[in-house]
């Protein structure tokens, strides 16, 4: 069934979304892009969801775009020009949706994350990977420079390291990906799901309003110059201070007790 392309399990405020095309290494087909966009939009609007985990079924997290589907797109009078422009626009919209969601999104990565799959990891707010996972923006190996994955990659790691990956098509392992800042940490494969959920539950245990305010401000200030960023985040903190639950949280800390958050 079409809805099985993506599965979702919700527990204690954490939604675990699993790309479910294992036979295609969870490639970002037209159907997968649509399913991810629709489901993430719905989760973003759900006030009971505090954290989202994005994972992949089978042997890999995500192998990027579906190349067979892309090649089939050439069978038009314009040679695929309209299709390709629309495809990359839809993919770009998904990548912009993730940081705009109110909830933190954590990538749970294993196997490989290549091209647009690596872009997806870089786009998520955090990422935990199994030891041995391989990451690459390797489109250049088949004559297609990973220009759209480059956007997310260069906002996660240093420019020289990003350019080397983009121009050589070489892969890095989870240890190197951690050093570069592409992922938060690498863990044993048999601990991947548990460690990712533990991180999600830690965040889910914080004041939801504060985390949502903070995520929005995090991305907003990153686009500003220093003075504007301080001015903006100062206003954000002042608004945060005026929340009833923030007052309760500080009072509880001073009184050495657990906060009674609504």
From TrEMBL:
Keywords: Fatty acid metabolism, Lipid metabolism, Lyase, Transit peptide. GO terms for molecular function: enoyl-CoA hydratase activity. May play a role in fatty acid biosynthesis and insulin sensitivity. It comes from the Bacteria. This is Enoyl-CoA hydratase domain-containing protein 3, mitochondrial. The lineage of its organism: Bacteria, Pseudomonadati, Pseudomonadota, Alphaproteobacteria, Rhodobacterales. Pfam families: ECH_1. The keyword DNA damage does not apply. InterPro entries: ClpP/crotonase-like_dom_sf, Enoyl-CoA_hydra/iso, Enoyl-CoA_hydra_C, Mitochondrial_ECH-domain. Belongs to the enoyl-CoA hydratase/isomerase family.
